[in-house]
Specification:
Layout (H helix, E strand, L loop, with lengths): L1 H9 L1 H19 L6 H25 L5 H31 L5
Helix pairs in contact: 3-4
Length: 102
């Protein structure tokens, strides 16, 4: 715990930027109309794809004995893939609602 507080004190500007990014992100997402959810989901899928590629690259360049980096990279890959699959499922379901019924 002492190390965490020391890290935050040494990187106070980064901490402020992260907090500001969280607040701005929440406010932007709350004000999005429902019509734009499908295009935004596609954008979120693209961002998750970038996260997956980045996590794979980090895992490739990490030391094979560094289990923390490998574990975090694996977790990032799994969560990114789940986000992409879920995003495509939601997008597909929303697009099915706009098709004409027979």
């Amino acid at each position: 715990m002492k190390e965490l507080i020391e890290f935050i004190n040494n990187n106070l500007q980064i901490t402020y930027i992260i907090i500001l990014a969280i607040v701005v992100g929440v406010e932007v997402i709350k004000s999005i109309p429902a019509v734009l959810h499908t295009p935004l989901m596609s954008g979120a899928n693209a961002l998750s794809g970038v996260v997956i590629v980045g996590a794979i690259l980090v895992m490739l360049h990490s030391d094979p004995k560094d289990y923390l980096a490998l574990g975090l990279g694996f977790t990032a890959v799994v969560l990114g893939i789940l986000n992409v699959v879920g995003g495509f499922a939601v997008t597909n379901r929303m697009l099915e609602m706009f098709k004409k019924k027979k």
